[in-house]
Design brief:
three-stranded antiparallel sheet, two-stranded antiparallel sheet, 51% helix, globular, DNA-binding
DNA sequence: TTCCAGGCCATCT
DNA sequence: AGATGGCATGGA
């Protein structure tokens, strides 16, 4: 259906559609308790408070106004960690392919609406931990396979308790995550922001690097660690929202630029 | 062909 | 500490 999104959240198949009244949600099986969706979409967030806490800067203000309605999702911590382990040094389209293959191979099938293609949930850490590295490499994740397997074993064994991390400080949680091989500052910050509720986390990736350089350091080429230090002190306790707007704005601009070249 | 990708790590000064 | 090259794989 046009103007709608279909996907799997946790073990729920769901189709979302924006209407004049609000968000229309269809599930394939009856749902009485909707907290899983309210939580995922972060519907209780006070956006006035978020906007008031962000710094005033023309580049950020423009990105926000161009993408009004953009929200931060609250993803499952394991799914988030695993997905971003697979993301390092890869293009977003390819990351989606690998995650999709991983779900089809090892995720539980979920009930869909009649007429819709089959769908699978994201595989549990226990399921991935039961794989061999060769099995994972067959999904074309390359050197990331050992990282994913190691993380799955850590989570499945209870050696790393992801849900407990949200009770720590941001730097403590980040440190716990970066102990995993294949998880550095950027991936850890993604997990903090997208699944653990640390709104101040500000992942600095290649897109954000370009956006910060253009908007805040024109004509300069600051080091990555300098950009990390700057963003940590500059964007404040809701910095992660600023990151989202800048990220999507940078990507959309790149897309527009490519389509202009094609004309 | 070469370069780069929602980085990270080992290995140098 | 800080800089450099390698890493699997695929698309432009």
């Amino acid at each position: 259906v046009n103007n709608s999104w279909t996907g799997v959240i946790g073990q729920h198949w769901v189709r979302l559609q924006q209407t004049d009244e609000g968000i229309l949600a269809e599930t394939s099986t009856p749902s009485e308790d909707w907290t899983w969706l309210v939580n995922y979409l972060q519907l209780e967030v006070n956006f006035h408070e978020v906007m008031a806490a962000l710094p005033r800067h023309p580049v950020l203000t423009r990105a926000i106004s161009l993408h009004a309605g953009l929200r931060l999702l609250r993803q499952d911590p394991w799914e988030c960690l695993a997905s971003f382990i697979l993301s390092s040094n890869k293009k977003i389209v390819h990351i989606k392919c690998i995650v999709n293959d991983l779900c089809e191979q090892y995720g539980n099938p979920v009930t869909t609406m009649s007429g819709d293609p089959s769908a699978h949930a994201f595989p549990s850490a226990e399921r991935i931990a039961g794989c061999r590295e060769l099995d994972l490499r067959a999904l074309r994740m390359g050197f990331r396979a050992s990282y994913l397997l190691n993380a799955a074993e850590a989570v499945a064994s209870g050696r790393l308790s992801l849900n407990q991390l949200s009770h720590l400080t941001a730097s403590e949680a980040r440190e716990a995550l970066t102990r995993l091989p294949g998880v550095g500052r950027k991936i850890a910050d993604c997990v903090l922001l997208f699944s653990l509720g640390f709104n101040e986390a500000f992942p600095v990736d290649v897109w954000i690097t370009r956006a910060l350089q253009a908007g805040w350091f024109p004509g300069q080429t600051p080091k990555l660690r300098e950009l990390v230090a700057f963003s940590e002190s500059y964007f404040g306790r809701y910095g992660g929202y600023a990151q989202q707007y800048l990220f999507h704005h940078a990507r959309l601009e790149a897309t527009n630029f490519r389509s202009e070249l094609a004309e």
